Amino acid sequence: MNIRLNRIIYLLLFIGTTVSAQQLNTAMDSTVTVQGKVNIKGKEVKYKATTGKQPVWDDKGKIIAGLFFTYYQRTDVDNIAKRPLVISFNGGPGSASVWMHIAYTGPKILNIDEEGYPVQPYGIKDNPNSILDVADIVYVNPVNTGYSRAIDEMDDKTKSETFFGVKQDIKYLATWIDNFVTRNNRWSSPKFLIGESYGTPRVSGLSLELQNSHWMYLNGVILVSPTTLGIERGTVAGAANFLPYYTAAAWFHKQLPADLQSKDLVEILPEVEAYTIDVLTPAISKGGYLPASEKKRVAATISRYSGLSEKVILEHNLRIPKTFFWKELLRNEGYNIGRLDSRYLGIDEQTAGTRPDYAAELTSWLHSFTPAINHYFKNYLNYHTDVKYNMFGPVRPWDRSNNRTGYDLRQAMAQNPYLNVLVQSGYYDGGTDYFNAKYNMWQMDPSGRLKDRMEWKGYRSGHMMYLRNEDLQTANDDLREFIAKSLPAEGMPAKYSRK
Predict the structure, then answer these.
(1) What are the alphabetically sorted keywords of the record (predicted)?
(2) Residue 454: phi, psi to the nearest 5?
(3) 56, 129, 382, 479: least CB-packed within 10 angstroms?
(4) Judging by beta carbons within 10 Å of its beta carbon (0-12, 13-18, 19+), is residue 27 exposed, middle or buried?
């Protein structure tokens, strides 16, 4: 009898402990803090890492969601007012803030080889290139990404209307940032937003929303592998602008003619960019009225710059879809190339077809990132939960209407003389290609009045250029330089002066 009673008591205690732990770790307003240190650029940097959730409130003050975040704060700083704060987002939409967190700017990075490929054992190591030496960083996971969740009572329609769209996303995240900055006493700090991929329209739109609705003025916005930012390409530029990326991918795989292949990549690309704007764009504009002889001449040049045959280029009327390029470039060798990073190779069921069966690069990244981030939160940051970590969460349908985020960023810059922009692109990124990132800048600033406050940097890798160790160092150094020069001199007013 006593043995049976003891078992019942044990089971009750066990079940009670499990339930309370689950409730505690899914609470919309709870955090855990650990201390850490990392060697950056040869110097020890001590920090505290706060992990957990901060609520999203509706207009009536009711909690409707909890956003999961990780906040790294250097602990040996005397004057927090002068300490920059970097607010970091990834994209998707629907992607967790995992990629830049444990592979780019954070104090720990995942265990991968020098080029970014998975290795075992999976895990984490110190990041000697982290920007934590010069700025505090908070990584934010929007609703349904990472461990972030809306309240259970909210139905799918209400979630979609509240969280899942260009404007919805910007609106609630701006309020969340306002609350975070207030809670952590960072209103006096210089502030920067960094976003990758879909995170770029997110931070572009946030720059204006924070200014106009929350009166929060930024020092810098960093766009990593930007999307179109709502800037229309049209059918002509939309087709022509891919050529410089095709050249880069073909050069990497040694598919260009010998005279081009013998040159360095950055020697070739200016020539291809000029051809794209000056010759290819007008040629495609003429459509079926382009003379046959000129069409053949343009096809021959595209072939020279892309590694594809003149025959398939003519079959596509000079407009080569990216999906076809990924399948065609190495078709004769039985491989396709990656979308977001065309250095990666994939193997399809058939060599025939017009698009790859799968994204070779994304499967590789999920292979290394997923075990690493789950291991990291539990074993390094002491965050324990039974909730699934969503690398990609359910956020569709996503309302993409009224996306003018590139123009929002331009307007924010015009209103705020302190605000600077840095764009970072990988040459081998076929999803958000580098030349279209440059095109964004040209269209955002047609007057040229803001170009001195906008800069573009290119790297010899793909969408997540920081996975390649050499670019990890260079790209972080570029961030340090950008942050430093975006901090105004003591007493420098935010104003325009007539010359």
Answers:
(1) Carboxypeptidase, Hydrolase, Protease, Signal
(2) -125, 135
(3) 382
(4) middle
Q: What is the pLDDT of residue 499?
A: 76
Q: How far apart are the first and last CA of the chain?
A: 94
pLDDT digits (tens, 9 = 90+) for 141-166: 999 999 999 998 999 999 999 999 99
Phi, psi of 19 (to 5 degrees): -65, -45
pTM over 0.85, yes/no: yes
Q: Is-contact 372 69, C-beta < 8 A?
A: no
Q: Three-class SS of residue 346? A: strand
Angstrom distance (rounded) from CA 75 to CA 236: 53
Q: Which tokens is 327 given?
A: 């399948």
Residue linked to tokens 């998975």: 118
Residue whose entry in the numeric block shows the structure tokens 């001590």: 46
Cα(222)–Cα(211) distance, integer angstroms: 17
Which residues partner with 345 through β-bridges?
337
Domains of the chain: 30-231+367-485 (3.40.50.1820), 234-361 (no CATH)
Give the span between the Cα atoms of 139 and 87, in whole angstroms.
6
3-state secondary structure of 203: helix
∠ CA 139-379-23, rounded to 5°: 75
Question: pLDDT confidence of 115, banded at 50, 70, 90?
Answer: very high
